[in-house]
Amino acid sequence: MIAEQKKLAITGAEAAAHAMRQINPDVVAAYPITPQTPIVEKFAQYVADGVVDTEMIPVESEHSAMSAIVGAAAAGARAMTATSANGLALMHEIVYIAASSRLPIVMPVVNRALSGPINIHCDHSDTMAERDSGWVQLFAENSQEVYDLIFIALKLAENENVRLPVMVNQDGFIISHGTEIVEILPDEEIKKFIGEQKMMYSLLDTKNPVTYGPLDLYDYYFEHKRQQVEAMDNVRKVFPEIAKEYEEISGRKYSFVESYKADDAEYVMVALGSTNGTIKYVVDKMRQEGKKVGLLKITMFRPFPKEEIQYYLNGKKGVVVLDRSMSFGAEAPLYAEIKSSLYEVAVRPQLGSYIYGLGGRDITPDMIRKAFDDAIEGNLVVDEQRYLGLRE
Amino acid sequence: MMAFNIKLLAKNHKEDKFVSGHRLCPGCGAPLVPKLATLVAEALNYDLVVSNATGCLEVSTTIYPYTAWNIPFIHNAFENAAATISGVETAYKALLKRGKIKPEREIKFIAFGGDGGTYDIGLQSLSGAVERGHNFVYILYDNEGYMNTGNQRSGSTPPGSQTTTAPVGKKIPGKLQLKKNIVEIMAAHENIYAATATVGDYMDYMNKLEKAFKFDGPAFIAVLTPCVRFWRIKENATLDIAKLAVETKYWPLYEVERGVYRITRKPRQFKPVKEFIESQGRFRNLLKHPMASEIIQGLQDYVDRKWERLLALEEATKDKPIR
Ligand SMILES: Cc1ncc(C[n+]2csc(CCOP(=O)(O)OP(=O)(O)O)c2C)c(N)n1
Ligand code: SF4
Ligand SMILES: [Mg+2]
């Protein structure tokens, strides 16, 4: 049954903090960095006011934040942190260790351009640097999705067949500092939905001692890496079940990808994060003009939902992929994945790669329309990387 | 305080918590460091949870699928043993508070780190965890170099010691800098019990372990731990050389409790530091170097000054805890 929900005008950062308040984790360790800071500040206030009884560790760096969270999670605690850009890069080494130790950590990531040069605004270079780390990566389009996805992420991370850490990405400033209406579920509903974590292999179980992080050489390492693949594959099975359960209490539906008028479209745009909102607006406008355009929004980037992408994009005339980060000397991350997914479809569409919004550069409806027009005019070139909003 | 002796430990000993079969070199001083710590915890009726920085101790005791640790153990990375244990200790507090765990015995937390993982790459993580006041004991096993990776220089390597990254050459007589004074750095955190120890004087080490476990707040023990492989010493010389370090003022045994200094061993007569140098093959090239006597004299002057300063600090800080 759908629960009665409270409507709050809050930012994406506040939505994340609200979700954390309702989770009331055992341990939070975090270090401030723009634009993630308001999450930590808001949560610290909850702790100070006794709204939650989480133990907070005010660490001296993000490296220590992730290190402490790995320790806390290995001890069997529900443990969370949050970060952005350089903070995520500083964690990088331990991000991999968290995944390979199979620790169910949930981390809101407020996407910001990775230095250098230093820049505090949105792009996806920070999270893309972690795409092979073994974390599940979810992308929110707006504050509501930030809020919802954090609970889904927690349940996914703690699922016995998954036991993997999850990043919930939100676009820096655009989502994190923009105020929107967010529907908040009652605390008891969330409590019921997330349940108690089943402690597995806790370091505090002194009767059954375990060794975490052993030296793992050529005789076993390979098999352990293979097990991580298995866990990722299990995400594909478990995620829809959890999303369905969440839909039953919230009325909001989540899947690997969201099709927005893509089913009968001839030209489809693919993107991550907040830009999907702008693309939907452009799709509506162009539909009114009789143009058969649509959108495929990617909510889950890791594991990559190849089958869903093949299902939606097979036989389209043109597919435009927007990337908010680059891979210097190679194709942009999302484009490379989409292109590779389409290798196996019966009727391959024309493909075009468009880079936009680096370092917080604005993306306007006109730019999106321009990319759609390229597709409609048959002017997509598979091997050409194009740029939206760049001064050339 | 109980005075530790072998009989007492034997009486309380039920089961080995750090077991043999690990792959540390024969004669290595490092395994004594956790061995004695686990024995003391057992005698005091504590359970232990341990974190360990990357290094000889960690790689040699946890080669999958084996482990020498009969207690919960976590190795995270090289530079974060302290941050990691701070997370474990915080989880303990949180889960106790929420009634999610009901331990029969009090749990104590130890982070083990080598000198590389402590003086150098892990210093920030350690300082942060101590400043935050977590209840844990950080035990440094100091073998004065990056031994696991084949004897590279660390902030703890003494001058003139042969390492692969500061070798004694025709021109440069090896490492020129003195050791970083890690105990002073840790003591400067003020709300801490900080001490030195060696594997050669295990009664002194065990007494300090007891104080460390019972101290309300973070504790730090720096244990001089000879490495047979790269100190170029005989397998049976480990303990004697550790003792010689104390007898030559090279490694004075003392403790600092909230700013109050106490020297725990005051040898009546000291031997020249040259004896310590000559006892180890790692200084062989230095001894052949034209600058040898100059460097050894410099070290002698330094340890003399350090000892005098310690005596003065002991006197000056008596009954004057800083916090
Ligand atoms: C970030 C990082 N840098 C470098 C290394 C390589 N490394 C592993 S152990 C080690 C030296 C360890 O020295 P120490 O802490 O003194 O311990 P020991 O091996 O001497 O016991 C180094 C350099 C690493 N594992 N991680
Ligand atoms: S190299 Fe040295 S420190 Fe490492 S195990 Fe051998 S003797 Fe011990
Ligand atoms: Mg060392």
Describe it:
- The complex is a heterodimer of chains A (392) and B (323).
- Chain A is built from 12 helices and 16 strands.
- Chain A has 392 residues and is α/β, with parallel strands linked by helices.
- Chain A folds into 2 domains: 6-250, Thiamin diphosphate (ThDP)-binding fold, Pyr/PP domains (Rossmann fold); 257-388, Rossmann fold (3-Layer(aba) Sandwich).
- In chain A, the strands form 4 sheets. A 6-stranded mixed sheet of chain A has the order 10-12-11-14-15-16, with helices on both faces.
- The longest helix of chain A is centred in the middle third of the chain and has 30 residues, at 221-250.
- Chain A is globular, with a radius of gyration of 21 Å.
- Chain B is globular, with a radius of gyration of 19 Å.
- Chain B is α/β, with parallel strands linked by helices and 323 residues long.
- In chain B, 54% of the residues are buried.
- At the A-B interface, helix 3, helix 4 and strand 9 of A face strand 1, strand 2, helix 4 and helix 6 of B.
- Strand 9 (211-212) of chain A pairs parallel with strand 2 (73-74) of chain B.
- The structure holds thiamine diphosphate (TPP), iron/sulfur cluster and magnesium ion.
